[in-house]
Amino acid sequence: MKKCVVPETRRSYETAFNSRCVPQNVEILENLVRLREEQAGLLGYSNHAAYTQEILMAKSPEIVEKFFRELYEKVKTRWEQERAKMLELKKQDCDRFGYEYDGLIHMWDFSRLYHMMIDKEFSLDQDLLKQYFPLEVVLEGMLKIYQGLLGLRFTKFANPEVWSDEVTAYEVTDTDSGSLMGYFYLDLFPREGKYGHARCGILQQACLDVTEERQKVGALLICNFPRPTPTNPSLLSHDEVVTLFHEFGHAMHIICAKAETSLLLSMSVEWDFVEAPSQMLENWCYVKDSLRLMSKHYKTGEALPDDMLENLVKSKKANGGAMKLRQITLATVDQRMHREGRYELGQMYKDALNEFMGLEPTVGTNMLASFSHLAEDYDARYYSYMWSLVYGEDMFETVFGNEDVLNPLAGRKYRQWILEPGATLDGMEMLKGFLGREPSLDPFLRAMGLLPTENL
Length: 456
Fold this sequence. Notes:
single chain, 17 helices
């Protein structure tokens, strides 16, 4: 979609993509909403959102609504600026290729205009950028960063017992005590029958066993990166570098947690906090010191050029309004269907998209039919992506900033306050201990360029 210059081809593709499983999945999802509402009523709750959020950091739908309203007011100006730029790019595109300009951003235009704006503003040639991110170089640099920050040592197994020859395995020990903490496995290339996205899972929890001995933890990182070819190594896009760094952050959360029971380990923290640590760690992929460790031209061995490095760092603020409002739109639909007991899901999405972004879904589509989050574990909890991102930016700016991303003292503090407690402490208690104060929205706004850095 981002490379396609023919509007009708983009329209046909986007229509087909966002019409998948309509109407079958719409009926299933609407029935799920009814059943969730019925369950909440039987348990004495006013709605499913209230039932779900009571044990999370947000505590109530009213707090979630307030959070998004405040965030929307901060972000909408950025989207208005981005929208004007995207329309100008569309006009230029139409003039160049001979298509009629209608002054609108259609859903089938969005991906192309989004990437055109990034490329123009930050002079980033994504195909050229990939040449500086061979997987082996990225992996070596990433492992070095995590070891130094967290006080760990990773030792690769020579001949691990694994389910595929492409899977690698590592032993993790604590550098201070020398004690064995656990293992992680990297399954990084696609193959038939394999899970098709990126995720980190738990093979074995690090709880106490029946003899009071600590069971060694096992973490599994699954990705689907481009395979090496006979002439080239696996080359990652910068987005894929971010994905790898993020998911490995979850692996470290799994391995470093010290709770005694599996119920209170790492990924058992509140659902609206579980992504915050890895969202914080994504910042390492936009900082020069860490990027230098993870990049090198796959042929010449040359470092990432200074101008590309500078533009890559700046690109973190690209399209902040568009993508943040998209998340607010989806989270609002999720909240409304589980708070108001509304079932006309296509109309709900259309109303929210128009309310927050001034856009219209393509006639005949309903992206909610293939939006699997609402049928899995994110019912009334999709807000957690944005909620935890705010905390992640606060943790990064306050303790690490752009100058201390390789500071082992800051890394040990992160391990102590955020990773080791698991779910034995509430997320807010961990945050306050790590930050030394109440959390703030301001670092998130600065990361988006909506507040000046001199406010630090």
